[in-house]
Amino acid sequence: MMQKNQVLNGREQRKVLFRLLSYTKPHSKKIIFAFSLLLITTVVDILGPILVKIFIDDYLTPRNLIFKPLFILGAAYMGLQITNVIVSYLQLLKFQEIALKIIQQLRIDVFTKVHSLGLKYFDKTPAGSIVSRVTNDTEAIKDMFVTVIATFIQSAFLLTGIFIAMFVLNVKLALFCTFILPVIFLIMTAYRKYSSRFYQDLRERLSQLNAKLSESLQGMAIIQVFRQEKRLRNEFGKINEEHYQAGMKNIKVDGLLLRPAVDLVFVAALIIVLSFFGISSFESPVEIGVLYAFINYLDRFFEPVNNMMMRLSLYQQAIVAGSRVFTLLDEDELAPNQENDSVLNIESGKIEVKNVSFSYDGKRDVLKNISFTAEPGQTVALVGHTGSGKSSIINLLMRFYEFDRGDILIDGDSIKSYNKIELRDKMGLVLQDPFLFYGTIADNIRLHSEGISDSQIESAAQFVQANTFIDKLDERYQHKVVERGATLSSGQRQLIAFARTIAANPKILVLDEATANIDTETEEAIQTALERMRKGRTTIAIAHRLSTIQDADLILVMHQGEIVERGTHQELLAQKGLYHKMFLLQNGSVVRTENAVS
After folding, report:
1. Is residue 338 part of a domain?
2. Which Pfam families does the entry link to (predicted)?
3. Burial (CB count <10 Å: 0-12, 13-18, 19+), residue 98
C-alpha cells in the first residue's frame, strides 16, 4: 500500500492511469464515436492552411482572380470552419458525458467501499480525509477524463497530421523541425518528475484541511465553551500555510516548464524556418503560400503542445488523486466477513461466549479469556469501570471487529457462520449517544425499511413512551429532524432510538448504556418499557448506574479485560467484592446529593 506523501514513480503513475482507464470499458462505443468526431476536427484543422496556401500561390500571387474557383475555395474554407465548430461542440459534449458517468461510478465505488470497511479503519482515519477522497480527489480525476485525455488524443492526431503535411510541403525543412520533438519530450519528463512530488503534497494538505474543518464543525459546542477558537484557528492557519507553500511550488514549476519553456522552443523553430526560407530566396524564388503554410503549421504545432503541457498539471493532479482514491479502494481493513450464502436462522437467541480474547492493536489484550452464557429471554448485564472491556464485548458481538481467539455462538452456531443480513435483522442495538439522520421522525424510526408501516412506527413509539413528546410536535411523526437530531434533547433522541429498535423486532437486544442520557423521570417510564422489550428477547446490557440492572438474570463485573465477579445483584452484594464497592459508592453519592438538596 502506498504511504502518505510517497512520490509516485513512472511505473506507479502508469499503473494508476491504466486503472483509471479501465473505467472507460462500459463506455467503449461512446468513446469510439467521440474519437471519430475528434479525428474529423483534426482533419479540418489540417486542411484549412492548405486551402489558404492554394489561394495564395495559385490565385493571389499570379493575380488569377477568377470568381468561380475563388468562390468555391472560400465556400470550402467557411464550410470547414462551420463543420469544425459543430463537431468540436459534439465531441466536447460527448467527452463530458463519458467523464461524468465514469466519475459517478467511481464515487459510488468509493462510497460503497467506505461502508464495507471495519470500524478499525475509522478509528485511525479522520473523517475529513475520507470526505476529501470521495469529493475533491474524484473531481480532480473528472478533469482528466474531460480535458486531459481528449486534449492528448486530439493533440496526437493533430501533431501527426501537421508533420505529414509539413513533409508533403518540404521534406528538408520538415526534417530540420524534428529537433522539436526530443526537446519537448525532455520538458515533459522534467515537469512530470517535479510536479508529481508537489501535487502529492498539495493533495495531502487539502485532505488535512478537510479533516481539521470536519473536526471543528463536529466539536463546535466544545470549542466555544472552552474558548478554543484561537488555538484551532492557528492550527488551521498552519495547515493552510503549508497548503499555500505546496501550491506555490506547483506554480513555480508550472511557470517555468509549461508555456515559457515551450514558447522558447517555438521561437527557435520559427527562426529555423525563416532562416531556411531566407537563405533559399538567394537561390530561387520562395513560394509565399508554402512559407505561410509552414509558419501556420508551426504555430498550430505548438498550440497542441502548449495545450498538452498546460493539461499536464491536471494530469498530474488526477494521477495523484487517483492513487489516493485507489489506496482507499484497496484498503483491506474490512468489516468482519460473514457467510452470505448461509441458511442459518436465529431462532431462540441463546448467546455463548467461549474463551474470547481480543486486541485492537495486536499488542495489548483488552479482553482476556471471556466466557459466559445468556439463555433465551435472559438479561446479562456488564458493569465495570471505564476501560474494563464492556464495550469491546459489544463490538465483537455486533461483528464490528473481527476476533480470532475463542468463539461466540448464537443458538449453538458460531456468530461468523451467520449471514450478515440475518445477523443484523435479529440483533437490535441502542447506543449511549444515538445517531439520528436528516429527515423526519418517522424516517428515523423506520430507517427506510419498507416492511415497517406507519401504524407499526406509532406502536413502537407508544411502546417506549416516545409518543408523549412526539404528539406535542407540530407535524408529529413528520417533524423534521436536522443533522444528528441537534434540535431534540438527549432523552428524546434516545427514545427515538428505542422506538427504532422495537420497530425492527429483534431477537437479541444490545443496550450500550442506553439510559445514560435520560432524566430520572423519563428513566422510570422507560424502565417499564425496557422490561417489556426484554420479554422473549436475549438482552446484553452495559450499565454504569447499577440501579438500572438490579433485576438482571446475570451480572458480569469487568476489570481490566477480565470477568472478576459474576452472579445476580443480591449474590454480588453478598460477595462484598468490587460490585459491592461500586454499589456503595453510587448509593453514597445519592445520599450525599439528597442531603445537600435538603
Report:
1. no
2. ABC_membrane (PF00664), ABC_tran (PF00005)
3. buried
- 84-97 pLDDT, tens digit per residue, is 888 888 887 888 88
Residue 184 domain-assigned? Answer: yes
Its domain, for residue 82, covers 10-329
Asked whether residue 300 falls in the same domain as residue 434, the answer is no
Choice among 202-211, 492-501, 515-524 with the minimum mean pLDDT = 515-524
Between helix 520-534 and helix 490-504 the angle, nearest 10°, is 10
- Tell me the sheet residues that pair with 539: 379, 509
Q: What percent of the chain has pLDDT over 90?
A: 2
Interhelix angle for 288-329 vs 180-218, to 10°?
40
Is the pLDDT confidence value at 62 over 70?
no
Same domain, 288 and 375: no
Global pTM reads 0.66
In a domain, 336, yes or no: no
- Residue 21 within a domain: yes
Separation of alpha carbons 207 and 432, rounded Å: 30
CB 142 within 8 A of CB 104: no
Which pLDDT does position 595 carry in this prediction?
44
Nearest to 321 by CA among 19, 93, 113: 19
Q: How is residue 573 written as a grid cell?
A: 452484594
Helix (H) or strand (E) holding 380, with range, is strand 379-384
> Are residues 321 and 433 both part of a single domain?
no
Domains identified in the chain, total number: 2
Same domain, 316 and 454: no
**Residue spans of beta strands (DSSP E) within 276-378:** 351-359, 365-374
Out of 154-158, 228-232, 408-412, least confident range: 154-158
